[in-house]
Specification:
Order of helices and strands: HHHHHH
Number of strands: 0
Largest sheet: none
Structural class: mainly alpha
Shape: elongated
Helix content: 55-70%
Strand content: under 5%
Number of helices: 6
Length: 111
């Protein structure tokens, strides 16, 4: 929604954009599930040029948090397949959270 020319006829477009971005940042700070992060990151990636830096930073922090919490959530998985799926998503999200390859490898070795 950054394209002011495109949204020039829309009333209060700047305020609306800011409200939507603030809500998305708040959502990302509420520790969404890994699956939700995957979906959200897909949309942010599609519209990366249109979202503010605060959203990008909140997404990055949310991904970092997922990696930090990995050790404590491992026992919660009921099956090996669900754990592998979780790790697959985390591996895909790693670049967004600027998670190092070493950290990803260590996380995979814990599985």
């Amino acid at each position: 929604m950054k394209d002011e020319d495109y949204h020039s006829g829309f009333p209060h477009s700047r305020e609306l954009r800011q409200t939507l971005e603030d809500a998305l940042v708040a959502l990302l700070q509420e520790e969404p599930s890994t699956e939700d992060l995957d979906v959200i990151s897909g949309y942010i990636d599609l519209y990366r040029e249109d979202v503010g830096q605060a959203v990008i930073e909140a997404l990055s922090k949310a991904v970092e948090y997922e990696y930090e919490q990995l050790g404590s959530i491992l026992p919660d998985f009921e099956s090996e397949s669900s754990l592998k799926e979780h790790m697959s998503i985390l591996k895909k999200l790693a670049p967004i959270g600027k998670v190092s390859e070493l950290t990803v490898s260590l996380a995979e070795s814990r599985v």
